[in-house]
## 1
Amino acid sequence: MSHILYPASERGFADHGWLKAAHTFSFASWYNPQKVHFGVLRVLNDDIVSAGMGFGMHPHDNMEIITIPFSGTLAHKDSMGNSGTISYGEIQVMSAGSGITHSEFNHSRTEAVSLFQIWLFPNQQNVTPRYDQISYDTEAMNDDWLQIVSPSPEDAGSWIHQQAWFHLGRFKAGSTVPYTCKAPNNGMFLMVIEGSIKTHDSTLGRRDAIGIRDESNLEIEVLEDSFLLLMDLPMA
């Protein structure tokens, strides 16, 4: 099959009171053998963290971790000596490599923070851990794909240890949006953050996603004003 649908309603859900999380792929106590990963994409968590709450220091290794906030402010601290906050219009990248510990807390005492946290398997093991945080122009993704992650420090956005490219875009209803993979044998994973689209004869709404393999070109029909995340990534 050249494509796999990931309906929002079929995600795993966890409500810890202070954390409400939806898992596109198997995570923590939620396991679905049909939804373990898509190519090198291992985790796509849609998290809402209550005011003043968060995750204490915990370890990671050999994973590329990308955090994209949509509202509120997230505070970060890690074993590499980095500390700070990120909010909408910024992304955070950690190459966990040979091992790091870090904490993540909602910086606000009054407002929740909403974010995606995405994990990719790296193409190199046990690299020196690395942290990066960048800002992007939220206006630059209006009616266009804005690249926020790539494999190269010389390219737009932050970079990771993987032949993967991430893009955000806001598109108007009635538009047709194309995309072409940047590397041979890569697939595409498209998440509707907000709105409604049609592609591959399927209609996708808020938080629905589709994984596409064995195709290098994608065409999206935008049914409602939509905010999209597109990941171009290796399938093995």
Note: The domain at 138-234 is CATH 2.60.120.10 (Jelly Rolls).
## 2
Amino acid sequence: MLAALTAFAITSAARLLTGARALWLGCTAQPVQRLYYANHSSHGDFVLLWASLPPELRRSTRPVAGADYWQRDGLRRYLIHQVFNGVLIDRERGSAHSNPLQPMLDALDNGDSLILFPEGTRNLEEGLLPFKSGLFHLARARPQVELIPVWIANLSRVMPKGRALPLPLLCTLSFGAPLQPLETESKEAFLERARNALLAMAPEEA
């Protein structure tokens, strides 16, 4: 009950403070298993994307986040596990035999959708950093899951680093068409195509 109330408060606050609106430009808000991949410029990115989904989709969509950040204290652990139902990944290298993608593969096999930031770290510059290889390997391993590019516009301007109060700018989240992996496509070609598909969703002023 407390987790549900906390989730409602967070989603309501996120939409109120940012004026966020979801633009379903290349797909519709259907209950289909998906991997939403987005640009990453703020710690609030996954919260805003998660909050922008209709409740039916939000219940089955889990953000992928770094365990090193979200396991630091009790409050963060409560939020990521009980409220967001996140999938935590170890960004430190484990053993040579461990698969860092396994928690995400397990979540997909459970029928969940995921929110992923393939740049791998926050990008405070314009454009996109090169994508990490995880998106390619997930697409190859689970080809039935739709890959949806989502451009988050203006969040870094609404909540700039070092500012306590948000600025009154409208945030938009543009959801693109599903990206289809090709059997003969190399990792490099796929990641470049995925990156270009995400850039194509950016408004001109972003």
Note: Confidence is low (pLDDT under 50) at residues 162-168.
